Amino acid sequence: MNEEYYLELRENPVQFEHASSVNNVFFDEANKQVFAVRSGGATGVVVKGPDDKSSVAFRMDDKGEVKCIKFSIGNKILAVQRTTKSVDFINFIPDFPHIEFSHECKTKNASVLGFCWTNWNEIVFVTDQGIEFYQVLPDKRSLKLLKSQSINVNWYIYCPETSVLLLSTTVQGNVLQPFAFKSGTMSKMSKFEIELPVVPKPAKLSLSERDIAVATIYSDLYVMYLKHHSRTTNSPGAEVVLYHLPREGACKKTHVLKLNTTGKFALNVVDNLVVVHHQSSLTSIIFDIKLQEPDCPVNVHQAVLPGRSIHPFKIPRTGPAAAPSQAPVICELYSSTWSVFQPDIIISASEGYLWYLKVKLQPTLNLLQDKGKLMDFLLRRRDCKMVILSVCSQMLVGEEKGSLPVVATVFDKLNQVYKEYLDAEQTYTVAMESGPSRSSSSYKRPVRTQAVIDQSDMYTHVLSTFTERKGVCHKFIIAVLMEYIRSLNQYQITVQHYLYELVIKTLVHHNLFYMLHQFLQYHVLSDSKPLACLLLSLESTYPPAHQLSLDMLKRLSTANDEIVEVLLSKQQVLGALRFVRSVGGHDNVSARKFLDAARQTSDSMLFYTIFRFFEQRNLRLRGNPGFNQGEHCEEHVAYFKQMFGEQALMKPAAV
Amino acid sequence: MFYSRGVCWSSGCEKQGDVSPVENHIHCDEGQPQTEEGSEAACPGISIVTDGFADSAPGDVSGGPASCEGEEHTHLDSQDTHLDSEDAHLDSEHTHLSAEQALDSASGEESQEDSGEFVAAMLARSRLEEQGLGVKGGSPPLADTGPSPPPPGLHRDEDVTADAWRAHRKHVFVLSEAGKPIYSRYGSEEALSSTMGVMMALVSFVQSGDNTIRSVHSDQHTVVFMQQGPLVLVSVSSSGQSEQQLRHELRYVYNQIVSMLTQASIARIFQHKKNYDLRRLLAGSEKILDGLLDLLDCDPSFLLSAVHCMPLASSLRDALSHVLQKAITPNLVFSILIAQGQLVTIVQERTVIEDARLEPADLHLLLNLIGASSAFQAGEIWTPICLPSFNPDCYFYAYISYLDPPSCSVCLLLLSTDKEAFYAVAECKRKIEEAMLAQNALAALAKARPYSATQVGVSDLRHFMYKPFDVPDNHRQLTQFTSPEMESPYSSEAEKTRLLDLYRDLHGRIHSTSRPLKLIYHVAERETLLAWVTSKFELYTCFSPLVTKASSINAITKLLRWIKKEEERLFIRYPPKYSTTPNPSRTRKAPEHDATDNGFLSLL
Amino acid sequence: MLCVFFSPRMASGMQEKQYTPSLLSFFIYNPKFGPREGEEEKKILFYHPSELDKNEKIRSVGLCEAIVQFTRTFCPTKPAKSLHTQKNRQIFYEPEEHFWMVMVVRNPMIEKPNKDGKPPTIEYQEDEILDSVYGAVLQQCYSMYKLFNGTFGRAMEAGGVEMLTQKLEKFFYRYLQTLHLQSCDLLDVFGGISFFPLDKMTYLKIQSFVNRVEQSLSLIKYTAFLYNDQLIWSGLEQDDMRILYKYLTTSLFPRHTEPELAGRDSPLRPEVAGNLLHYGRFLTGPASLKDPDAKIRFPRIFVNTEDSYEELHLIVYKAMSAAVCFMISAAEDLTREFCEQLDSLVGPQLTLLASDICEQYNINRRISGSVLISLTLRQTPRKCLALLALLSSNKHTIGAHIKRNICYFDSQRSQACALFQYSIYTI
């Protein structure tokens, strides 16, 4: 059961004093900071950020109930809204006057719905009649209006990471007007309409901000609309509709996520997955909008995995009272006091916790039977490498051993990603070589995601262990290895020799030499020095291997020295010498080396031949058949005399 | 008749000069009592020979064979008288093929001490002397390097069931159509008579199917069968030679036998007695066959069927030829001078040579005859000898004497057609001796050395054999070849044989009847060989295995140039002639188409 | 002028008749079976021509025994391999102890007509025939027999002499007719397997095809894949594959060429129960799977007779130019269901593969084909030289093949090179 939880709350959440009558809690999505404001700030404000460093504590005078409180980027300036008319500012920049100053929205009798920082000193006021874009001048303790836009606003949503502001307009509130902010500029994007399940008569506000969320998925900005189930429409349950919101151009409805149930929902986006929490069933489901190829303008998706609860979370007892003996409290999941923020934040104000949501991949192995789909899913996740590898090893062994076609598709999927990365690398390096001038700007080094599973990964984590495994039919082992090699070849990835070695070792281990020979014959096992050496080592068990290896070395054409060594080691001194000559190295080779080898064969005839050869070489090079001191051939000369007599030595005259 | 016998024993030692045959006879008997009886019984043997000549002696060619038939018949009858014992069971053996029978017949022979043939008797003596003198000097090129044949006794009583016997590289067997053993290179004929029985069985079995057995091949051996008239010769060889080559060798063996008995007489004997034991006539001559077979293994001149003549300054060679030319007597047809077993020069009777040439094959037989027995080292020998390629049915009379005793390296060989000419020919020898003494030729010859391949001055060239075809008036010429001495790395016996085997292999390929080749470049394990045949020459070369094709071709052109330059020294370019015909009645000579009339008969 | 005079003679010379080598007789005997006098006939296990007179048969067997015995006196371990006579050549082979196979081939001959009505003179070309070639042919006879019947010894164990003689009769009666002695050559000696030239990727595709089929039809023990009668993959060990290949290429495939010859490949099959369209069909076993009472029987073959001695069903399945052999233990009995399963599984894939290969092949035409000569080549350099001599009367291309592959037998490498030089000069 335990390995069925594929969602969990990450370790060490941000803790803060839980909300109460004296303590108001605010959350700033931009800086992901929780503000605990005790009695309007007079008794202190504690700001806790994602990491402890960014937690701040200060006091401020209680000037009435705080509506909204946020730091500008980098905690430079604090903005606090207490009234519907104005926003107050407090300078947090060191050696700047730390005195509050306030700013009223310029639009007459408009009430401020809220504000959001778009930069360390730029802020947007959202009023029911429009938006006002200001630059804050802390030294002058005043604000400068950069731009403003008047428009009726029901409510707004701000997406900090893209600094896009979404305004709900019109009576029904289902026409959304996005604005994009960028250092001092504000650009209006094309507005769009959310299709309502039922158009109310008479018209009334029927799109609440609770049903809308904005998040980037696969680096595209989406507006997610939680479309509740309605009896009139014959949809079996609620669904999440995704509107793609491009920087330029119109916003389009692109995906529909079928929830197949009704009730209260909350949305998160984790690792490019849309997570939908269903309160009544205390379960969550996840969607991957890339899992199926986009065939039509609007793609309908089902949950990738069956609904499962978030992994239970235990709260350790805190404070001096805490004793190790006492079991930690199981905290209540999906509680009504939860509020969910994008992309992956869950806050329980009542208990004073801020969690990050996280997807665990391991459980998906058992939950997703279709290995191909599983691969597609995993390859898009962040920390997928080990999981993928375990999928691979799992599919090769045990009773749920995958059929070869499955194995093949899995390998193909892996290698496709692998290949894409290699190509990117390639083009990058090429660009670099061609001169960083223009490339440096146009290309950035491709990031190697965990999804890139290369040959050494496969070798170390999957194949090597698999081949050594007992009780696996060797036919299957070879089949798998060949599949992998096939797949690599299909994507024109050069196969590393250690894979070939694996194949060869397996074949040899089962005396399938004839197969091996056929593979070599068709160059399935491409030539390489290590491979040639391996073949050499096989000679004792399979004599032809020796020749195969020599031929391979010859084809490599970079292994001439090796060839000579091999031949000499086989006492094929003549062959060695012939070869050296064929590659034109015979004037430089050491005479002694060859004479030694010839001596070892104790074949006097051979020795004679070799000796003569070098005598002639000496004659050709130095006009004298004798050997030089440096060549250290004295003993051989002596031996020659003793074998064939003084007169057999070549005479300088004889040319 | 008795007189002719006297001649055969004459002049055992020089100083006695002109002494009576009888004395001599006795003088040598004390050495060897049984030849006494041998020589007595020899009468019929001799008669076969002499009668053969007596008949054909008068110039009447046509009548020859017919009348000799008659003579033969009456004569052999007389012999039957003491063969009766044997006849009893031999006659019942007309188809004796089974082993047992063959054995019987063999054992049946054992009792027969009756070996009284002319040559045989002479050799019996030589064998005796050998114990004293041993073999030295007088062996042809390479013979001394070739596996020196252990005294025949050793081979004869080998255990034919032992592995050692099986291990022999080449066996040769000669048997009669009746399956009677005649000769075996290793092991005694008696012990092998069953094996030979089987051989004969195979031959005649195949024959019965109106077919002819050629050879049997196994991974180890090639067995070649050859039938020559009433004789069957079999070679069992693991030398890897081609069937052709083995057959060629068997023909030499056959011819050697013919050279001692003539084809005609062999035919006559077996016509008369199918199961005659030919060993009676060949007793003592196994040694010659042994010697021949050893030569065949180690002397390339047989392979090339060419004569290897001693390289000599042409001036010296001419001088010697001149000496021979001067010393002539009627019916002298060939004067041959041999030094260290190699041909120095040969002078030929003009008219004879116009009728038929002296084949190298015949000369090889002569050389072998001389080399095989040291008998000739003592004084002069006068022996009838047949030159099968020249005429298989008639005898020449060979006068053989060494000119430089005791070292016995220079040998004079004079061939006459007149069996009575011993003294005349001996006289020629004296003349030659004097002349050579005058010129101090012996010393010069003693200095003569074979040359070395390095003299050619081509690196990588280790050895070669060159056989020219473009010699002056070729059709009269004795085919020759030249070849340097085998030096290191081919100085050891094993290496020499190995090289020869390689040559044989190439030769076999070049001369293959079905798929002949003109040029072979063969990179062997320890050397590279190149064989090349053109209309002008046949050449076999051995290079270092590291030679390249280009450089070897290059080397060959150099080699050919060198040979051209040395020609005069390496070959007998213009073999001298003389005329010994008393009456130049050549004009009336019968045309050549008649095979039996081989010219020199008509001279007499 | 002279020429004109001679030309008619030459014309008459043209009329000489050439006779190629022909099989005179072929027999198998075991000397142990009729040791006593008068029992010789029992030694004979098979004799062709059977109509020959009994005594004649006994005589010829007797001769062979004698020859073998005779050669044993000189080397007990290496008895005679062949007997050369003026008119014919006898090849001996002892595949199993005491079992001797003998093939008697008449030498090729030329019949020269004689003028004025004399009987024509016949000239036997004694050296035309090469032992190595016909020796190999004889060994092939045995291997082929063994492939379909197992060893002599097993037959004896199973059903004594009777069974053995029956098997021999049954097999060789047909097989001997398929021997084409005149067209025997070098390839017979090497028992060469011709491999299909192919690029790596396509080869790997074939690999995974084979592996997949073997996984999903686990009965299959060995698979071999051929294209255009050339081998691409063999799961069988080489020696067995060599003889199987011989059978496929010289006997089975030729009998089934018609559809391929007829332009585009075999007629497209109507869609069978959800199958893709494909060209697949069985070359062995049922002619048609539709016919319900057609027997599902496949030929049996025997492999690895040295050690495991396996008996297998031989299924040959072909689509276009691609043929696959599936070998399944004879212990399994093959149902129609299995055949249908195989057909529907293999048919479509093989069809696709076949067209892939065809495509690839047309692309990489330049890669020339090669004859792979047995890696365990037992030829001595001498033999090879002889064979190359034979080559000289053959096409040069074969010479090239020799050079490429002979290098595999390394101990003789230096010779091998020499051989090629040699063949250059002779061809």
From TrEMBL, chain A:
Residues 381-629 form the Mic1 domain. InterPro entries: RMC1, RMC1_C, RMC1_N. It comes from Coilia grayii. This is Mic1 domain-containing protein. Coiled coil: none annotated. Residues 25-143 form the Regulator of MON1-CCZ1 complex N-terminal domain. It holds the Pfam family RMC1_N.
UniProtKB/TrEMBL annotation, chain B:
Residues 52-116, 132-158, 575-598 are annotated as: Disordered. Residues 70-97 have a biased composition (Basic and acidic residues). One of its GO terms (biological process) is protein targeting to vacuole. It holds the Pfam family Fuz_longin_3. InterPro entries: FUZ/MON1/HPS1_longin_1 (IPR043972), FUZ/MON1/HPS1_longin_2 (IPR043971), FUZ/MON1/HPS1_longin_3 (IPR043970), Mon1 (IPR004353). Residues 461-567 form the FUZ/MON1/HPS1 third Longin domain. Residues 170-292 form the FUZ/MON1/HPS1 first Longin domain. Residues 331-432 form the FUZ/MON1/HPS1 second Longin domain. Belongs to the MON1/SAND family. Plays an important role in membrane trafficking through the secretory apparatus. This is Vacuolar fusion protein MON1 homolog. It comes from Coilia grayii.
From TrEMBL, chain C:
It comes from the Eukaryota. It holds the Pfam family Intu_longin_2. Residues 24-150 form the CCZ1/INTU/HSP4 first Longin domain. Transmembrane segments: none annotated. Residues 220-346 form the CCZ1/INTU second Longin domain. Belongs to the CCZ1 family. PANTHER family: VACUOLAR FUSION PROTEIN CCZ1 HOMOLOG-RELATED. This is Vacuolar fusion protein CCZ1 homolog.
